[in-house]
Amino acid sequence: MVKRTDIIGMMELEQSFRELGKVPQTVATQSARAGGRIALKAAKANAPVDTGELKSGIILKRERTRVKGKAVYDVMMDPAKNDVFVKVTKDGKRYYYPASQEYGFLTRDGGYVPGYRFLRRAIDDNKTVIEKKVLEVAGKAVDKALRKGR
After folding, report:
1. For residue 1, what are the CA distances in angstroms to 4, 84, 87?
2. Of 49, 64, 106, 145, which is the most buried if we count CB atoms within 10 A?
């Protein structure tokens, strides 16, 4: 003989999951942008201040995606400022100034100057803060959507 069990509140739970599936793309976008802003602020604070252009050239840009419910933001150097960032030496060699500041560079006499890693540290140093902010913003939006559906 087969025993049948009923779970109290199962219908409400199923309804909540259906409503959760209808949460708009803006929830992912808002939460990803909120986390990205933290990294952007940290990157600008960590950037070396030799010229001042480096700090103003750091931007937050959204990646394009076809996957629904996915939003990714990059903290990157502004491509519109490449004319400022690309330097040319006297012998005609070109180099990208932000990359040399991030990763380091070789000197003329063969020495190595280590990079500041300001973009990398912006993410690594604030990883837990960024995760908490993303979850907080997404949680609020999901709660709002679930309350709206009832």
Report:
1. 10, 79, 81
2. 145
